[in-house]
Write a structure and sequence with these properties.
This protein has helices at about 10-20, 35-45, 60-65, 70-85, 110-120, 150-155, 170-180, 205-210, 210-215, 215-225, 240-250, 260-270, 275-295; strands spanning about 25-30, 50-55, 95-100, 120-125, 145-150, 185, 190. By secondary structure, the chain is of the alpha/beta class. The strands form two sheets. It has a five-stranded parallel beta sheet with strand order 1-2-3-4-5, with helices on one face. Strands 6-7 form a two-stranded antiparallel sheet. Helix 2 crosses helix 4 and helix 12 (about 260-270) runs antiparallel to helix 13 (about 275-295). It is globular. The protein binds iron/sulfur cluster.
Length: about 300
């Protein structure tokens, strides 16, 4: 994780835990360089989840794309995280393996999937954003099929190498962040989703506060655009995004997600999200199975 290079990261994890703020790195990490105390802190302070980008199971294959990486070190760090999870008796951090399908790693997809299961990781195979780099088709009929990577495919339509949006379900996941997990840059810029890097969905959060920024007109308008009830507008980042262009071209709009359900959803809807985190941090492993059985989770 790049965030793991921050010299304060252990203190940040501990502080967030004490303040009942749930942290995660679902946007991606490579786990090449993580210090031992940080590997322990991830489990101890219940860091919610990490998506790890691993494009091969041998160094030869892995380093073809992640030039300076060492996949053995990545696996070692994952095993250490799992050992810390056992030690701290927690299911966190949840681990997800993202593998980009290339021609040069097609033969390692099946063993990678098996290894992910062994390591307790979810496994996702994605298509490369650049169809000309080591294309899968070049390897013949045994080549794996993959879901296109919308985070890459959804770069601004005008940017070099931008692809039309595909992999609809995953694409929607990124757009749904506007409702479910609006992304905020370190400098307070309201990025909205993890794809957008070229504009803002409204006021700077550090300047006007979270509530006002998220209640802004531009973010609300963007949601209407994505639902197909408002035309594109130049000041909304989606207008320049290949994902939106794809959705609009196919007239396949985003459906606004339902409000969070269950006991946790009820508490979140009433501004008690941190209470949910506090309860989950302390009693989640005992409470969750009960709530699931009662269909209240
Ligand atoms: S269409 Fe908008 S919300 Fe969806 S990925 Fe692009 S910038 Fe993000």
């Amino acid at each position: 994780m790049r965030s793991s290079l921050n010299p304060e990261i252990e203190h940040i994890l501990a502080y967030a835990y004490r303040r009942s703020v749930a942290l995660s790195a679902w946007n991606g990490a490579n786990l090449n360089h993580v210090k031992e105390p940080v590997l322990e802190a991830l489990a101890r302070y219940k860091f919610r989840g990490i998506t790890c980008s691993i494009d091969g199971i041998t160094n030869e294959t892995y380093a073809a794309y992640r030039r300076t990486g060492n996949v053995e070190r990545v696996f070692e760090n994952i095993r250490k995280i799992n050992a810390n999870k056992r030690r701290w008796k927690t299911r966190y951090p949840k681990l997800r393996w993202h593998m980009i399908a290339f021609g040069h790693n097609a033969h390692e997809v099946a063993p990678a999937r098996a290894l992910a299961a062994e390591l307790g990781m979810e496994f996702f195979l994605k298509a490369s954003w650049d169809p000309n780099y080591s294309p899968v088709e070049a390897q013949g009929p045994t080549a794996p099929t993959a879901v296109p990577d919308p985070a890459r495919a959804a770069a601004p339509a005008s940017s070099p190498g931008a692809q039309p949006a595909q992999g609809e379900d995953l694409t929607r996941t990124y757009c749904l962040q506007l409702w479910e997990q609006p992304q905020i840059n370190f400098d307070g810029k309201l990025l909205g989703c993890c794809v957008n890097s070229w504009g803002a969905f409204g006021h700077n959060v550090l300047e006007v506060g979270l509530e006002r920024a998220l209640g802004g007109e531009r973010l609300a308008y963007a949601k209407r655009m994505l639902q197909g009830t408002a035309p594109a507008r130049d000041d909304v980042p989606c207008t320049a995004c290949a994902t939106y262009v794809g959705l609009a071209g196919a007239r396949q709009w985003i459906e606004a997600p339902p409000p969070p359900q269950g006991v946790a959803g009820f508490l979140k809807r009433h501004g008690l999200g941190r209470t949910v985190v506090w309860i989950n941090n302390r009693y989640g492993s005992q409470l969750l199975p009960v709530l699931e059985r009662l269909r209240l989770a």
